[in-house]
């Protein structure tokens, strides 16, 4: 399992060490031992550029997932390989947190979960599939919230002397 974190935005500090632990726990919960995922945190202007360039949608959005996985063999012995990039807009997380009465750190983790669910085949284009995906997203987020203090994502790691 390989997770690369890149923070290209300057609006909020992100505790990368804790986020890596959260993502590792998520991947373990989903039994994704062969996953290779890049997480990239961007601001609204970069997310707008990505959304318009690659998805042909106007404006910013919260999360975009690019799935680079090769088609899987249908044999029973095949181990799933998931490979992709998940772009997360921190500015959108802040806006959505205000709208829904949560905090931006929980929104960030929700977007990570959402992106990973897309990588493993969940789809949110049809209402029935969207409801199913949202239930799984909520279940996974609740489990991660019990294991980790998501509010700590905004605190830099202190190294002891």
Q: How would you describe this protein?
A:
There is one protein chain. With 161 residues, this protein is an alpha/beta fold. It has a single domain, classed as 3-Layer(aba) Sandwich (Collagenase (Catalytic Domain)), CATH 3.40.390.30. 46% of the residues lie in helices and 16% in strands. The chain contains five helices and four strands. Strands 1-2-4-3 form a four-stranded mixed beta sheet. Helix 1 links the parallel strand 1 (2-7) and strand 2 (36-42). 27% of the residues are buried.
Distance between the ends = 31 Å
Percent of sequence in beta strands: 15-25%
CATH class: Alpha Beta
Question: Which structural class matches the secondary elements?
Answer: alpha/beta
Number of helices, counting only DSSP H or I runs of 4 residues or more = 5
| Radius of gyration, whole Å | 16 Å
Task: Quote the CATH topology.
Answer: Collagenase (Catalytic Domain)
Strand-and-helix sequence, N→C? EHEHEEHHH
| The named CATH superfamily | Metalloproteases ("zincins"), catalytic domain
Unreliably modeled segments: 73-77
* Estimated helix fraction: 40-55%
Number of individual domains: 1
Reported for the largest beta sheet, the result is: 4 strands, mixed
Global geometry = globular
């Amino acid at each position: 399992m390989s997770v690369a974190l890149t923070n290209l935005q300057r609006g909020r500090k992100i505790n990368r060490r804790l986020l890596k632990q959260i993502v590792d726990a998520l991947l373990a919960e989903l039994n994704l031992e062969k996953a290779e995922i890049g997480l990239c945190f961007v601001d609204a202007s970069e997310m707008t550029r990505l959304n318009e360039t690659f998805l042909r949608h106007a404006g910013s959005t919260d999360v975009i997932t690019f799935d680079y996985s090769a088609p899987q063999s249908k044999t029973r012995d095949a181990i799933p390989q998931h490979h992709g990039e998940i772009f997360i807009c921190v500015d959108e997380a802040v806006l959505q947190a205000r709208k829904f009465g949560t905090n931006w750190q929980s929104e960030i983790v929700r977007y990570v979960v959402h992106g990973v669910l897309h990588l493993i085949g969940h789809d949110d284009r049809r209402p029935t599939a969207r409801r199913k995906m949202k239930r799984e997203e909520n279940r996974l987020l609740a489990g991660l919230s019990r294991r980790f203090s998501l509010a700590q994502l905004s605190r830099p790691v202190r190294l002891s002397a």
